[in-house]
């Protein structure tokens, strides 16, 4: 693993949950100050997350982000005024295949994100309160997902049974190969998104938009949906609590999110080399 990128970093793209955010979804003062220091140093900063756009607004405001941000693992890239730079929907057939498998699992709660809403059929699932706290808004209960099949941003399988999600990921990926991406954004969440909904694509799109070469970009994250941006970035940084397979794909490893690892990485690997 390389210690530093030979070129100064001009753009940092960061994951949110498990990276910038503490376990209670708050931002530490050190993280806020580190991001502010990036802006003072003239380094572009933005966010890439599995969350929907409106679940990013509080953090965008707190961090002072004034660039387009990537939601749904990069499936949607949104300008600060709410207009889309990029929007990719899950193909209908991939949605049908995914829902057919996931909805049969008694230990799995299935959520669909479409039309700006969080949709579910069972509002009393045990994972719902956690997600509502994280997103900051309630779900919409629907009788069927069928009316939304043409415009789904993301399907999520949520379960406290992590090994089951690993198994479902391995089963589902071959069935939607070439149509959709299947990845665990967190140990308890399995995401299904459009092929173009990749944080790697988001990094490249945003770098081009900003006029920054990929060699001058950095990416930081902790989940299974983060290595695609590690592959494209000039410098890739994994959080200390990330799974070993994620850390193994990064150039450097920082502290965990409860240790202000993101701020440490900014201070050491980006600002410290300028």
UniProtKB/TrEMBL annotation:
<protein>
    <submittedName>
        <fullName>Pyridoxal phosphate phosphatase YigL</fullName>
        <ecNumber>3.1.3.74</ecNumber>
    </submittedName>
</protein>
<dbReference type="GO" id="GO:0033883">
    <property type="term" value="F:pyridoxal phosphatase activity"/>
</dbReference>
<dbReference type="InterPro" id="IPR000150">
    <property type="entry name" value="Cof"/>
</dbReference>
<dbReference type="InterPro" id="IPR036412">
    <property type="entry name" value="HAD-like_sf"/>
</dbReference>
<dbReference type="InterPro" id="IPR006379">
    <property type="entry name" value="HAD-SF_hydro_IIB"/>
</dbReference>
<keyword id="KW-0378">Hydrolase</keyword>
<dbReference type="GO" id="GO:0000287">
    <property type="term" value="F:magnesium ion binding"/>
</dbReference>
<dbReference type="InterPro" id="IPR023214">
    <property type="entry name" value="HAD_sf"/>
</dbReference>
<dbReference type="GO" id="GO:0005829">
    <property type="term" value="C:cytosol"/>
</dbReference>
<dbReference type="Pfam" id="PF08282">
    <property type="entry name" value="Hydrolase_3"/>
</dbReference>
């Amino acid at each position: 693993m390389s210690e530093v990128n030979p070129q100064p970093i001009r753009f940092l793209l960061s994951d949110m949950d498990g990276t910038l955010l503490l376990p209670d979804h708050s931002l530490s003062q050190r993280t806020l100050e580190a991001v502010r220091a990036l802006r003072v140093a003239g380094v572009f900063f933005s966010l890439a997350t599995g969350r929907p756009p409106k679940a990013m607004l509080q953090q965008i405001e707190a961090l002072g982000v004034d660039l387009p941000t990537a939601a749904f693992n990069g499936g949607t890239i949104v300008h600060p005024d709410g207009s889309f730079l990029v929007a990719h929907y899950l193909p209908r057939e991939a949605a049908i295949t995914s829902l057919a498998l996931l909805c049969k699992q008694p230990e799995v709660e299935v959520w669909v994100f479409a039309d700006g809403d969080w949709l579910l059929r069972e509002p009393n699932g045990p994972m719902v309160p956690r997600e509502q706290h994280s997103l900051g808004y309630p779900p919409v209960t629907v009788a069927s997902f069928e009316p939304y099949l043409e415009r789904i941003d993301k399907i999520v399988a949520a379960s406290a049974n992590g090994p089951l999600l690993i198994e479902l990921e391995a089963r589902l990926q071959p069935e939607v190969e070439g149509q959709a991406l299947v990845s665990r954004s967190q140990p308890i969440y399995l995401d299904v998104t459009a092929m173009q909904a990749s944080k790697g694509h988001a990094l490249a799109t945003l770098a081009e938009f900003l006029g920054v070469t990929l060699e001058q970009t950095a990416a930081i994250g902790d989940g299974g949906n983060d290595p695609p941006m590690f592959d494209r970035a000039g410098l890739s940084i994994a959080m200390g609590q990330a799974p070993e397979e994620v850390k193994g794909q990064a150039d450097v490893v920082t502290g965990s999110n409860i240790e202000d690892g993101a701020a440490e990485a900014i201070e050491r690997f980006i600002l410290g080399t300028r």
